[in-house]
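Box 3.1. Reading complex inputs
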Amino acid sequence: MSDASRADRDCWIGFDLGGTKMMAAVLDGDMKPLGKERKKTKGHEGVEIVLERIIKTIRDALADAEAAPSRLAGIGVGCPGPLDLERGVVIDAPNLGWKNVPLKEVLEKAFDCPAVIANDVDAGVFGEYHFGAGKNARCVIGVFPGTGIGGGCVYEGKILRGRNRTCMEIGHVQVVPYGPLCACGQRGCLETVAGRMAIAAESAKAAFRGDAPHLMETAGADLANIRSGALASSIKAGDKVIERIVREAAGRIGVAVASVIHLLAPDVVVLGGGLVEAMPDLFVGSVAKSANKHVMASYVDSFRVVPCALGDDSTMLGAAAWARDVVSAAPRK
Amino acid sequence: MSDASRADRDCWIGFDLGGTKMMAAVLDGDMKPLGKERKKTKGHEGVEIVLERIIKTIRDALADAEAAPSRLAGIGVGCPGPLDLERGVVIDAPNLGWKNVPLKEVLEKAFDCPAVIANDVDAGVFGEYHFGAGKNARCVIGVFPGTGIGGGCVYEGKILRGRNRTCMEIGHVQVVPYGPLCACGQRGCLETVAGRMAIAAESAKAAFRGDAPHLMETAGADLANIRSGALASSIKAGDKVIERIVREAAGRIGVAVASVIHLLAPDVVVLGGGLVEAMPDLFVGSVAKSANKHVMASYVDSFRVVPCALGDDSTMLGAAAWARDVVSAAPRK
């Protein structure tokens, strides 16, 4: 497949820059995957080394695809935010130890092609819109419960966004007036009652008081150990109270989703992230039931609630498709 | 100005179809008003007669503008919903007594030009975006507290909407879990604690128990009489408790606006409707303060909260500008 002499720029890179790992895929103009590569991020090694590693990961993915770098039409990167989308700068990413890193410029220089950065959650929702569970829907909402609860929206083929920031911060929609304190400084945000830490804290209490023997045995009452997998196994093993805690947390997400449905009338709500992947039926079913219970009659069953179809690959693939759309729409220089 | 022989289609009609009155304006291609007309709607007289009256109102507005009907390039109508936007049908408008009225078809036949219908609130927000308080902003949210609390969003020059319905039902965002019963069947919707009926009921109780002597004297404790004007006069005359009730209701709207800011990151939030027009400073100030108090640090002061600039004309003017955008973008037949 390699053909360095060919001038056609027919390949796209989709890149997922995470705190733990980075992943690159090479896709052709029809968004068919040709090759990929992944490496550990190791943010503690410093900005320069990680930037080199990103470039190396892209080169290795191109090698895997047997595609010369000269075939690159563009690069899309899903990054943790906040970002300056116009200038392509990662403003602040504590997981990477990055502040004001001009990622777009670095990549454009290294590969002599346009680069586009997007919020990682937005890129993931775009991936599900383009390839996955929300394929070609007019309006797709993505909700990713984890330590925080991320959200994104693709509306008529475009990522909805703030002027120079991401939007769809569904984790910070207030669901309990004067509720628990949130990391953001507000009270009663969805995250405070339905994020992984809220679920873990409720579960730890239940385990500690003897109501969740399986969880107590496998994970104890330490929030650090009560992760999605431990919750899922404890439910499977028969800890009824843990099932109830997860169901009620998902129900709270359904209330916030109902508000989003009243505001944006999406066709599809895609759920992803570790909690959903560990307990897809329980989570998706509870969110769907609660959302339908909390919308006005005319919106009942006007939307589908579905699990992510692409799993870990959504951000990487979405970033490639988004880059293709943005670069193709831009006026040529 | 009249020139029936001229083939140029350079005039647009903006129409506001309300339950009480209907208004038409004639605008030129640069959206400069040339003439207008208004009539009482009188929905009780039946669909046929009201449709005739709509046509007559447009003809009278054209006469006022000294423009021949042959100059019409298109007609935009802001209607109460729900609507079938593609087919241009008013599905159900209780205020008019209408069910499944093919308004677009009727107008296109009568005037031999394209007609476009839009939700009245959406058209109003588009009017404020195009001509008024949210002029050319990237993302404008409109909030119109009244008996219900209507909402709309113009994002990058387009009205955000559901597939075949309006969206931005901010009045039905849940702000009080297990709160008061809403007309929509849900509990704790914003309308139930911040709509005119909620404010009127709180005020009637205060008046009845002797805490709002001015309101008691002018309006009594009958919800039907406690309208925006009566509330404004009672506050002016010194009824402190009424001021507090209005301020707190506006504060609740600010909480819902904060959620919308987390979701859509608007640049401008435009407030309109009878309550806001009667008490602009009190209302706008309270919503702005509360919204800023309830958003994450990075969103504080990232938006402006402003009163409507066009008042009663926003829907009529917005409908004309929207029709021009839609008709100009459509492929020619």
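In summary: Residues 259 and 295 of chain B are 8 Å apart (CA to CA).
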